[in-house]
Amino acid sequence: MKSSGGSQNDENTFDTYPLTGLEHHNQISANSIEIAKQSELALMVSKQLLTKNYIKIAAARLIEYGDVRPSPTIKTLSKLTAPTQNCPFKKNIKCNIQEKYRTIDGSCNNIKRPWLGKSNTPFKRWLTPFYDDGLDSPRLLGISGRLPNARHISLTVHRSMTSKIIVEQNATNLFVIFGQFIAHDLISTAAGTDINGRSVRCICNKINRLCINIPRPNNDTLNIDQKCMVVARNAASFPTVDCKLGHREQLNLITAYLDLSQVYGSNQHTTNDLRLFKGGQLKATKFQNRTYLSHLSLNSCMDDKQGQLCFKSGDGRTNENMGLASLHTMFHREHNRIAHKLSQINSMWNDELLFHETRRIVTAQYQHIIYNEWLPVLLGKRIWINTDLKPLINGYHMKYDEKIDSSISNEFATAVFRFGHSMVTSTMSKVTYRYFLYKNLTFSNISFRNKEAYLDNGLDGILLGMVTDHGEKSDAIMTKQIQQHLFETKDVNSQTKRFDLAALNIIRGRDHGIGPYIAYRRFCRLSVPKSFSTLNHLLKVYKNVEDIDLFTGLLTENPLPNAIVGPTLGCLLARQFQDLKRGDRYFYENGQFDLIKFTTNQLNDIRTVSLSSILCNTIPDLLTIPTRSFLLNTKTMNCQKIKKLNLFHWKT
Ligand code: HEM
Ligand SMILES: [Ca+2]
Questions:
Q1: Which CATH number fits domain 18-161+185-207+221-650: 1.10.640.10, 1.10.287.1120, 3.90.10.10, 3.30.70.2390?
Q2: pTM, two decimal places
Q3: Ligand 2 centroid, distance to 189 Cα (angstroms)
Q4: ipTM for this model
Q5: Which residues lie with the beta carbon below 6 Å from any ligand 1 atom?
Q6: How many CB atoms lie within 10 A of CB 375?
Q7: What are the tens digits of pLDDT across the range 110-125?
Q8: What sections of the sequence does the record tag as coiled-coil (predicted)?
Q9: Of all protein residues, whose CA lies closest to atom 12 belonging to ligand 1?
Q10: Given pLDDT bands bounded at 50, 70 and 90, which one contains residue 12?
């Protein structure tokens, strides 16, 4: 039995069979099941409306666009509302415009369109989708016929022949896992379910419109046990919040904002379950004098013997790897530390006020770390400065714009922000409080497994190990741990079952009707190569430049100077992070709303915070820390000397 995931505890559905690792990872909720059912119905109606004109549509599509974009006929559908009595997206949203704090579900951030960025709303799109029928069927056809098999692309383009050891990267592993932590704040796509609301069971060789299995290609000598990789399509959603007819969209279960929803939850029930309701604190557990998160129920993890249960936080994927769980723990400890200090400074504050003001401060520190430390390493200083992502030295940012849709773009969720998969390492280190290495843990042993969290110095050792280890280079190559052995298990017949994350990313792009790489180069106004001269090695799999899948194309670009990513990735990442800044009324630097803004003293103080200072705050035994924990070989500081938040600026 497994709940549908931490962020959706009020909407639990239960499965009666053991789940695969992928099902552990991908989330569903009662809400998403209902929306998927209604959306599938609406798609059927749309198809019927269009069937009569199908030949005309195909012809129009070819003549007008020369590709598989929706025809004008499909566009007319968007004027029709779906036959549903129960369009959920705008329902029951009541805003208090005097509210100083973010809502838990992200609603009311935008006053005019209060559903923008709310949990359980559809993704936005940068380009109209490239479904084969313009509406719903996965993108399986390209200019030169059937697109290559996703696992074949993975084996040819994304496969490391040896373990990945060539490092030209000076980003730490903390940079990588912090990326995953951010991903789990922004995106949780609703996974597909059957009509009973259970995870879809896909079977090789059995055609099921809910499945998009990847057949085993002939050159796959590694995965001989598996006839195919079973993959369920993600759940369908209406494309608009008005439930108009149109293309198959997908649903984001969590808040789009950088609001630490992975720590606090994306719905009230989850948040209430995490809170202690005393002193503004979050519930915690103690083991050998160290503070841990509280626990999920039995069978939430792969090795959940009593005492080794997995951790509960605001997002259901917290235990995907122990590095990620240690970051959840770090922010959770920081919350409780600040709540405690504030309760001493302002002894008359009640639990509610302490909780929300602490959440506001911790979220501001986190946003500052992303915009001040993480993004410049990722994008390089040029894009970071030119696209207004760099925080100001002083004063308020005054560019909040209510016209900006801060929700996450489907392309960002399905291809762009998955760039981090290529930087994942095959092992994680455990180090002492003085950074001496004493354990090297294989990734699969710390994925949805919790034993190591309670051995030695536990999660502290893992967290500090990420500061000393480098991440892998961002390129097409992925470590075998996730390209060959992801979620590896043996079934009842002792046959090995495992996943390939590169192939999954590619097939997921097709499932969501994400357009090809070249379309996004055009979108970013970058040159469009006519031949493969710059992308030579892709010739082994793709016949036409126009057919390259977005995920694969993005990762084959050469990085920009002093950046981790190339030009198209840089453009698309910057775009989304700009929307998350200028479209967030509660952005920490925003000075346009007197009720919401921090005082100048408070803001300037938040600007002195770094991830290193939070590491020092939350690991009591730590003495020293590198000044910049996303970069290798930076100067080491004494924890006592590092700049920290001065909470007396919050004395009332
Ligand atoms: C550390 C090891 C990691 C593992 C094992 C992992 C695993 C996965 C899996 C299994 C999925 C779902 C694939 C699908 O069915 O479509 C996924 C999705 C995703 N991953 Fe990772 N991931 C890791 C790290 C990262 C990192 C470092 C980043 C970004 C910097 C990242 C960003 C994403 C995003 C944006 C999604 C889409 C989420 C969604 O649509 O719900 N992941 N990951
Ligand atoms: Ca969020």
A1: 1.10.640.10
A2: 0.94
A3: 13
A4: 0.99
A5: 22, 25-26, 176, 179-180, 183, 187-189, 320-321, 413, 417-418, 420-421, 424, 482, 501, 504, 508
A6: 22
A7: 999 999 999 999 999 9
A8: none
A9: 26
A10: very low
